Amino acid sequence: MSIEKNIQTVKDFFAAIGRGDRESLLALVADDIEWIIPGENWPLAGTYRGHAGLAKLLDTASGSIETSTEAREFVAHGDRVLVVGFARGIIKATNKTFEDDWIFAITVRDGKLTNIREYVDTQALARAAAVSMPENAGNPTDDRSDLRAS
User: Fold this and answer.
1) Alpha helices of the chain — where are they, by DSSP H?
2) 38-92, pLDDT tens digit by residue?
C-alpha cells in the first residue's frame, strides 16, 4: 500500500477510537495485532495480542479511564506510521486527572494495523492511577539514634 493509504488507515483507526466504534476498530486491525502499552501501576499497561486482546484492552479502558485523544501529526515511511498526539483524561478509580503527550509507532500491512507501540508519559499515568496514602504512611520513621555519636 502507499504511504498515503497507510496514513488514511491509521486516521480511520483513530476516528473509530474517537467514536467508540469497536466493529470498525476490529475491521482495521490484523487478526494477530500486537499492541504494546508501556509502564506499570496503571490500568492499561501491558501487551495485547489478537482481536481478543484488543477487546480486553477496550473493555479495560472503558471501565477504568475517561480520555479525550487528539492525533496531531502523522509521519510515515514505508509500512510505518508515527502518530504524535495528546491525551487528557481521568482515572476512574482515583478520580485523578492526567495529561499525556504521546507517540504511537504503528505498522500497517495490507491495509491492516499489525503492530502498535505506544510511547507515553508512564509517570503521569501512574501518578493518576496511584491511590493516595496518608502522609508518611508506608515510610519508616526517621530514627537515626543509632547513627549518633555518644
Assistant:
1) 3-19, 22-28, 50-64, 122-129
2) 887 778 889 999 999 999 999 998 888 898 899 999 999 999 999 999 999 999 9
Which amino acid is residue 69, in one-letter code? Answer: T
CATH code (residue 29): 3.10.450.50
Domain that holds residue 107: 3-131
Q: How far, in Å, CA of 99 to CA of 102, rounded?
A: 10
Q: How many structural domains does the chain have?
A: 1
Q: How far apart are CA 103 and CA 101, in angstroms?
A: 7
Residue 142 within any structural domain of the chain: no
Instruction: Say which residues have a Cβ less than 8 Å from residue 10's Cβ, sequence separation at least 6.
Output: 74, 81, 83, 106, 108, 113
